[in-house]
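Researcher: I'd like a structural prediction for the single chain below. Treat it as a standalone chain; there are no partners to consider.
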Amino acid sequence: MSRPQLVLVRLWPWLLAFLVLGPLLGRGYVLTYDMVFVPDLAMRSDFLGLGTGLPRAVPSDAVVAALDTVVPGDVLQKVLLLAALGLAGTGARRLVADDSVAAQLAATSLYLWSPFVAERLGIGHWPLLLTYAALPWIYDAARRGRAGERTLPQLVLWLGLASLSAAGGVIAAVFAIVCVAGRSRDAVRRSVLVAAAAVAVNAPWLVAGALHGSGALSDPRGVEAFAARAEGYLPLPLTLLGLGGIWNAEVVPPSREGWAAVVQLVVVVAVGLVGVSTWRSRVLLRDRLGLGLAAVIGLVVALVGSVAPDLLGWVVANIPGGGLFRDGSRFVALLAPLAASLFGTGAAVLVAKVAERASRILVATVLALVPLALMPDLGLALAGRLSAVDYPEEYAAARSAIQERQDAGVEGDVLLLPFSSYRLPSWNDDRPTLDPTGRYLTPNYLASDVLYVDGEAIAGEDQRAARVSDLLESDLEPEALAGALAAEGIAWVVLERDAQEMVGDAAPSADLAGLPVVHEGTDLVVWELPGADPARAGTAREVAMAVAWLAGLGTLAAAVAALLRRRTRAHRNVF
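Model: Treating it as a single chain, here is the predicted structure.
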């Protein structure tokens, strides 16, 4: 590969990443569904796994809270998104056992410019995008490890990056284990070490979830609501093979609803079939088995919510943590490495069949651009569906008011009203987003974990939130309601007027007129409740979470130390 070709191959994933995210890279915050960043996310005990709700944002919120002490929140968000897409594309090159320009460009395009990326970006699953980015690097570390290189520290670090969410941690752990597993003594030893590392880096959310006991059970009605869905003219299995299938139709790119999705799947499968023979001859059997087994597992998990909803419903209702598998289309990520490997190899075979240099360049270019041409609405921030916005100034005023009361010795949590999970802020161009108010403020916050999908309520798991919802729906007078909420550890109640007008009676709320007001603006009003009794996690739980965090951070620190020692020795050998 010539130097210009090498430069092109290395720049291509970052060019694609900038093409997707370019309009979002100015100052401001991209708020869409589950992706909520704020100027300064204050560290709090709930982010460490000590809250009453399931640890859905553990450890991602704690990581963001630590990082945005040195990097502004909006800048950190853009860095993480760019890193996710750029690393995904760069890693995809390592999935192809062919160093030709055609193979590496094609694999990069298919892996980065995929329906999975478009749909997860639209729904705001940024930790899952980091998981997706880490998979090719995990495969590469496992492959080189079997060849005799000492790559366990790198593999552990990639597992850590992939495990910022519970689902991401499970996906990465499954992929890593199937890539390193084998019957030889070395393979068994590597498998045990990788499995132990995966448990350690996922310990914060694993332990936090385990401590909830029966509270980690989920509503079985969520199985049907979150099951993978067919897109456009493609039946569900083919939709999943095309790396799509998210349950939320609102985030599906419009191009996926037409013939373009069919054409793309046909082209990708055809090119992959062309390369199968070469792929089998160039990729070791153990690597083929790893990629293939991961793809099968991903497809089965993605399908089970639709094919066997009763079985999965029993699992989520009776096995703690089973709710992780309700959104099965997240596991489509496990199909992507195999798809990129085959597509890249097939592209190289097709280009090699062309005699003239100009024609080879044309064929390679066309194959690299097929994913872009057939799904153009991933580019330019999902064809303009996303944009960066600024928070209204009164959010900072409300935060300062509560911070002052905390500094004066008031303790307790914030209750967010209306008591519903999502908002449609007018200042966010009416895009749905998790209520950002709680993250913007400094104390722990209590929000509803009841979800509505197609008008059906999916019950949450937080028993404290359920009790507060019942209180809000009662006919208690303001003073009596304030006393009951204070007994639940609530010190402040924040009402968002715009959201209240929008949801009306669809979500519980309250008017606490007559109670002390610490902030009142055009949209936010903050009441302070006297006599709040702050909820405590308990010493045993705090110790358990401390051990979990030490296990995770200690494992990552050991991996970093091993890499530094190796580089130091290599440097000494050079001189």
